[in-house]
Write a structure and sequence with these properties.
188 residues, SH3 type barrels, mainly beta, OB fold (Dihydrolipoamide Acetyltransferase, E2P), 3 domains, 6-stranded antiparallel sheet, 0% helix
Amino acid sequence: MASTSDFKNGLVIEFNNDLYTIVQFQHVKPGKGPAFVRTKLKNIKTGRVIDNTFSSGTKVTLARVERRPYQYLYKDDMGYYFMHLETYEQIHVQESLIDNYQFLLEGMGVEIVVHADTETVLSVDVPQFVVMEVVYSEPGLRGDTATNTLKQAKVQNGETIMVPLFVNTGDKIRIDTHDKTYVERVKS
């Protein structure tokens, strides 16, 4: 058990028979009346964010959540398969628990968030930046670099990303998986 004075961003609590992580919190002490804590809570399973106000000193139940290093192996009809990097234990995870699953590459290291008490997988965190090869891109016009013009490029996983005109087929680029945008060209 913990109280509202122990709140910090990223803390996982049991609330309304579900697991929530604290996204944002603020202790408020009005001039009149008792103090309270205003929070934004994100449901771990659904991703839905709710606002909630706790009275100051309210007891909450903490959930033991662990982040474990895994390596992505392959995908089949049952789901995605990962191997723990220390125990070599293999698990499979449903697609719905993986944000940005389309950026997974075989052999890629990921972090899997596990509820420590029940050993259930809560989510799979794909790295924020991945390097992929451009498999198709229209050639850019020579001399057309004065503006920040973008063109479409298809990368090795089949996704289409907007890239600058100087990126060509065969180049490796770094992609931000959170908003699916081009970051930079990577030198081989």
